[in-house]
Amino acid sequence: MKLPDPLKRDILDLQGRLLDLLDEVTVVERSLLMTFGETAETTDSLTDLDNIREQVQDAYRRFWILMGNIAVTP
């Protein structure tokens, strides 16, 4: 199925936003670790960041698979 070009641009924009979010989570996590280390005070935040990363990665994977399935649908 051929997707209209505006829809493809929107899809690629959304994928880019997910990648940007992954990058931001990584930057924040790295900054937190470098500034404060892994302590009792940072453990919850680091766990939250890890959970966010996993959720975003899962959304990206599902999005990628969905788009591939749409592309091969007759």
Helix content bin: over 70%
Please, how many helices?
2
* Structural class determined from secondary elements: mainly alpha
How many discrete domains?
1
Radius of gyration: 17 Å
Strand portion: under 5%
Rounded mean pLDDT is 91
Output the helix-strand order. HH
Number of strands: 0
List unreliable stretches of 5+ residues: none
The separation of the N and C termini measures 5 Å
Largest sheet: none
Summed up:
With 74 residues, the protein is mainly alpha-helical. The protein has two helices and no strands.
Structural write-up:
The chain has 74 residues and is mainly α. It has one domain. It is 84% helix and 0% strand. It is built from 2 helices and no strands. Helix 1 packs antiparallel against helix 2. The relative contact order is 0.15. It comes from Gloeobacter violaceus (strain ATCC 29082 / PCC 7421). This is Gsr1577 protein.
Characteristics:
74 residues, mainly alpha, 84% helix
Question: How are the SSEs ordered, and which strands pair?
Answer:
Blueprint: H1 5-36, H2 43-72
